[in-house]
Structures are given as C-alpha cells and as structure tokens.
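Subject: Sanity check before I submit

Could someone independently write out the structure tokens for this chain? I want to compare against mine line by line before I put it in a report. The sequence has 114 residues.
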Amino acid sequence: MSNTKFLLLIALLGGAWQNHTKIQHWLNPPPPRIPGNDKVVLYSTTWCGYCAKTREYFADNNISYQDIDVETTDEGKSAYQKMGANGVPIVVINNDTVIRGYDPAEIDTALGFE
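---
Independent answer below. Compare away.
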C-alpha cells in the first residue's frame, strides 16, 4: 500500500471516529418522541460547547425547548442568579427539575423517556 493510500485510510478512520455518534444516529435513529406538555428551558451562552451539545441533543430527539442566554438577556441573568448557578448549561423541566451540565440520561429520565 502506498503512503498516500495509507494516509488517506488513516484520515478516513479518524473522521469516522470523531463523528461516530452522528454516524450511529444516522444508521440507527432514536424512536420518535411523543410531544408532551413538558416545558423545557435551557439556560446557556453562545460560546459554551456543552450548551451546543445540549441544543444538538434536543434537536436530534425532537425536544421542544426555550433557549435563554444568561449573558445577554435580563431574564437569563436574573434566573441564573436566583438559581445560584455557577456554570452552564442548565436545563429546567416543568419549573421544578434542574439539571446542571450536559446530561442526556438525566434529561430523558426527567421527561419520562427512560
């Protein structure tokens, strides 16, 4: 095998590894979610990588949510301070379940999907 083919193979394998969750989601999509009356609020920032992963998780799983920026909106700043928060993302479900950080399993449990 030539060096070029070997390097191409390594690059393809690396790309597949980096995107394995997206490939897995494409090959085996999750079952459709049944819309509920759950109110889901995401307190986030624009620069947070885990906030982006949470948004992506919500989109991939058809979960409707309200996204409130804790840095640029008065509502977000106020709620963030009242929760005594010290990081993002924060997911609040039905005004009583607070999930700190990116935790898909806990989100599913709170929404009754597990």
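---
OP: Matches mine. For the report I'm noting this point. The two ends are 48 Å apart (CA to CA).
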